[in-house]
Design brief:
It is built from 18 helices and 13 strands. It is an alpha/beta fold. The chain has a single domain (40-360, 408-514), classed as Alpha-Beta Complex (Amidase signature (AS) enzymes), CATH 3.90.1300. Helix 11 (319-336) links the parallel strand 9 (301-304) and strand 10 (341-342). Helix 3 packs antiparallel against helix 4, helix 12 (351-359) crosses helix 17 and helix 14 (380-388) runs antiparallel to helix 15. It is globular and about 75 Å long.
Length: 524
Amino acid sequence: MSWWKQARAKWLSFLRRLIDLLSGVLFRVAYAIKGKGSMPPIRNLLLLEPAMSIAAKIRNRKISSEEVVKTFISRVEEINPILNCVVDQRFEEALEEARAVDKLLATTDKTAEEIEKETPFLGVPFSTKDAIKVKGMSFTAGLYCRKDVRADGDAETVALLRAAGAIPLVITNTSEVCMWWESHNRVYGRTNNPYDTSKIVGGSSGGEACNLSAAGTPFGLGSDIGGSIRMPCFFNGIFGHKPTRCVISNHGEWPEASDTHQTYLGTGPMSRFATDLVPMVKILAKKDLRLDEKVDLRKMRIYYMEDDGGSPHLSPVDPDIRQAMRKVIEYLSQAHGLKPKKVDFPKLRRAVSIWLAKMNLVGVPDFCQQLANCEGSINLGWELAKWMVGQSNHTFIALMTAFTERFGVQPGTPHYERLFNMCQDLHNEFQTLLGDDGVFLYPTHPTPAPYHNEPVLRPFNFAYTAIINVLGFPATAIPLGLSRDGLPIGIQVIGGLLSDRLTLAMALELEKAFGGWVPPKIDV
């Protein structure tokens, strides 16, 4: 690197840190004046159980499905006025389906083992984001011109969970067109973090992660094209899995992904408990991921990085997150005799540029078209002018996303081609290193949940998750307790192609070692 580039990088890093420092102080003062809401504590022990445990109690007739559904309905009604995570519900239909489950269990001759094999989540309610179809329910993806759109059927993933006995209960909030890391839109408003309502929940599956963390449902579905499962899981202290590319169907979602974007988009499970992830992936996966094979952690190779190597456009990794990573390294070394190896992928410093280039494709609807529901295109300049006087139906960040796409690196240019080649080279480097027995530990995000609107001043911090999407690898978000400010922190674990079983096994292990989800408030 030339002296000029080094000097420029140092200046940008200094500027990035200064902006972070000043914005943190300003937002802290602003929200200290404004105040924040208090989430009601969890009082029912049923809300503290994994979905698999609840399913076992239902099929063994220790509790009725109707009682379970009523319990979670009550919880949603309790939390949603404060958190605004749920945007639509089917309470009456869910209760009818629960009663049908109870009637079936009262008359069937099947054993609990047979029921578990055929319908492992029989009678258990679940949730999904407002971008994945549930018949008859809101299907807006946070876009104002879709505010009256209802799903005409179930997404393939929802249909698979229904076939496994699960009952859809609620639809959860997203960012506008699912393309930002705060869940806020002009249809349903903004979602608040259950640990601190002045903080964000992430996006675009932010309402889903918030609802799950606050125990609104036992488990749910999210989708992830730039970290939209993993970032919300990180900010809300729960588990989530972005699968290997093209392993789980994205059919029945909006925005509709192009054939190429399908390889970046991953639909996957989200839950307070790691124990629910593998059963969900078994139901949803279209390919054999060898999930029934026992994973011997002692034979696993572990690699890690504590940050991206120093991109000047990203916030520094918070000391609490670095410390959590070091505790994981120490635990794996002492408990399993592993020798985690610190590595360096210099190309990760270009993660933002690579992701933006890979998303900007010829022959697919651009973001201005998506903001018009792919029925024409918005006039970006006019919408920005309307926003300035409070008359636009779009969020500021959605318009800025369209602006960035239009004036960013364009397909066909030499720089664009270099970024594409860099991505392929990085993919090959990762796959060669990890093989089918290695995992890579990496921050999910550089900081705990920021204040509402603060991501506008930290726009590229999503790079830690986004780069994994365009590489196509599986990645599991794993919570590791709370920061000194009481906010969730954690890491993501990344595997080679089709090595989902390794990252999911690591989630189970670290949940046992570090406790997993920490309830925001509890009083039982």
